[in-house]
Amino acid sequence: DYDVVHVHGIDGMFEFAAGLKRRRGQALLATTHGLFFHTRWMAPLKQAYYRSITARQFSRFDAVIANSSADAAMVAPYHPAVRIIANGVEPLAHSMSTGSRLLTVGRIAPHKRVDQLIEALAQPALRDAHLDVVGPEWGVKIAALRAHAANLGVAHRVVFHGAVDREALARLALRSGVFVSASAYEGFGMALVE
Question: Can you tell me the distance from the alpha carbon of 58 to that of 125, in angstroms, rounded to the nearest whole number?
Fold first, then answer.
């Protein structure tokens, strides 16, 4: 019943939507969202799948929106109407940060490697640094990270805030001087925006 069907990401839903029967005048769009090359895991198989099965599906779409020039370059051989539209970002605050703290934001998931950020605080070069960790538990327990920080002697310099609202995140961002990430991969590509 929709005039426009938009698939956010090149994944199973992309292929499913490509196979649907469309009514006359209905537009089918896709946004790349990094395609499915976020990790090196099974890279040769992913490349083969992309160049064969995924490539054929692009022809069913009226337009493809690439979130980056890298995505656009990968899609261009398979779709003539690929356009780059970067992800829009609304600033957290209307002032520049003047703080000296480190800030990491995102789900506390295994691939985010918050444990490595805590380990970095134990290095002599960061002996005066403080880390604010913002985000909900997502496969990693905050209690385990607190214990890890205690074992390294840096627990007094790590603050876990959990999930916070926009105003609280803006306050934390303003008191931070550096955004940090040790993430193994990012589907969205920008952990701070995520």
Answer: 49
> Tokens 């609202």 identify what position?
165
Residues 42, 185: Cα–Cα separation, whole Å: 14
Report the C-alpha gap between 39 and 45 in whole angstroms. Answer: 12
- Contact call for residues 183 and 112 (beta carbons, < 8 A): yes
C-alpha distances (whole Å) from 21 to each of 1, 4, 53, 80, 128 are 12, 13, 18, 22, 60
Residue 26 has pLDDT above 60, yes or no: yes
Q: Per-residue pLDDT for 190 more than 70?
A: no
Q: Are 83 and 63 in contact (CB under 8 A)?
A: yes
Enclosing H/E stretch for 64? strand 63-66
Under DSSP, the state recorded for 108 is B
Tens-digit pLDDT profile for residues 151-180:
999 999 999 999 999 899 989 988 898 889
Query: Terminal CA-to-CA distance of the chain, rounded, Å?
Result: 31
Instruction: Quickly count: other Cβ atoms within 10 Å of residue 191's Cβ.
Output: 18
CA distance 80 to 63: 8
β-strand partners of 179: 103
